Amino acid sequence: MLNLHVLQAEYGDCFILESKQGKESTAVLIDGGPYQTFQKHLKPTFQKLPTNRKLDLVVLSHIDNDHIIGLLDLLDEIKNQREKGIKELVKVCELWHNSFNDILQIDAEPYLFFKNIFVNENLISKKEEEKNQQIISSIIMKGFQQGKDLALLAITLKISINSRFNKLIVIDEIVKSIRLKNITIRILGPTRKNLEKLREEWKDWLTKKKQIQNVESDLLQILDKSVPNLSSIMFLAEIKNKRILFTGDGSGEDVIRILSKNEMLDERGKIHVNVLKVPHHGSDRNVSKEFFNTVNADYYVISANGRDDNPSLGTLKWIIECDHENKNSKKIVLTNTTQNVLKTLGQYDQKKFNYECTILEKKRDFYTINL
C-alpha cells in the first residue's frame, strides 16, 4: 500500500506520505500549511488516517509561513498534551529542517537580525519607530522566527533534528540517498552552490541597503524569491517501483540540472514519476515548458488557492500540453478552484487533450492518491 494524502492547505503545502509493506509501515509529513491548517484539516486527518499515531519523519521544505505554521501548531499540541498527561495526537520521530540561522550562517535571533537592519543611528520619531516595528513584524511573519521556534519545540520534545546530516540538509550536486524503513529518499536539493549564492546575495544586499530607496519592498522581494527558490529541500521518494517527487518552492531548472548530472534521466533526457508535487504552488516563475517536458508524471499535484495568481495559467497549459507520446490520461490534482483553473478548463477540453482534473471537495480535509 502506498498513499499520498494531499491536504487542504489553501495557499500552502501539506502532505502525508503513507507506505505499508507487510507488517512494516512508514508515515512522512511534508510541510504543515499556513494558519488554521492544523486545526481545520491536519488534526482531523490524523484522527481519520490509520497512521498508528506515529510519524517516522516530518519534513519542513523551507522556512515560509505557508509551510511551517501547521508544523508549529502540531508540535505545540503534542507539547500541551504531554504536559497534561493526555495521549498524544501523534508521535514524531524525526524532523528535517534547515533553519534561517544555519542557512545564512548568522548567530543573532531572526527577530534581532531584521530589527538591526532597520535601526537608524539617528534619533527617530515614535511614528518611524512604529513603522519599523510593523516592517519587522511583516518580515518575521514570513516564517523566519517561526523556524527557530520550531527547532526549540522539537528539542523540548526530544525530536531529533537533521540527525542523518551534518547540521544542514544540503548536497554537493551529488544526490544523497537516505533509507527510511521501506522508503528510499533521494535528496535533490538544496545544493551547497545555491546556499552559497543565497549567502552572497544577502551580503551584497546588506552592503548596499543604505542606497536602496524602498528597503522594505526590496527585502521582501528577496525573501519571497531567493530564500524558497534556493533553500527548498527537494527529494524523490521511492517505494519499490513507485516514485514521488517533492519540490517545495524550488526551481524546476535546479531539479533538471541535478537529475541530469546524476544520470537519472533516460536516453530521451526524461524522467517519469508517479506523482509530481508541482513547484511553488504552480507559479510559472519556478517552472517552464522544458521542465514539464523533462519531468513527466501520472499525477500533477498543485496546492494553491489563487493567492499570488497561483496556479499560473502558463503552468497549467504546460502540464496539459506536455508528454504527448504518453497515451495514458494525465491527472491534475488541485486543492482549490481558482479563476486560472476555470479558464484552463474552459480552454482545454479534458477528453480532447487527454487529461483529468480533480479538485478537492470544499468540505474534505484531504484527497488520497492511491498508488
3D structure, described in words:
- It is built from 12 helices and 17 strands.
- The strands form 3 sheets. It has an 8-stranded mixed sheet. Strands 8-7-5-3-2-1-17 form a 7-stranded mixed sheet, with helices on one face. It has a two-stranded parallel ribbon with strand order 4-6.
- A hairpin with a 7-residue loop joins strand 1 (2-7) and strand 2 (15-21).
- The longest helix is centred in the first third of the chain and has 20 residues, at 65-84.
- Helix 2 (65-84) runs parallel beside helix 6 (144-156) and helix 7 runs antiparallel to helix 8.
- 38% of the residues lie in helices and 23% in strands.
- With 371 residues, it is an alpha/beta fold.
- The model has no long low-confidence stretch (mean pLDDT 90).
- The protein has one domain (2-117, 139-370): Metallo-beta-lactamase, Chain A, CATH 3.60.15.
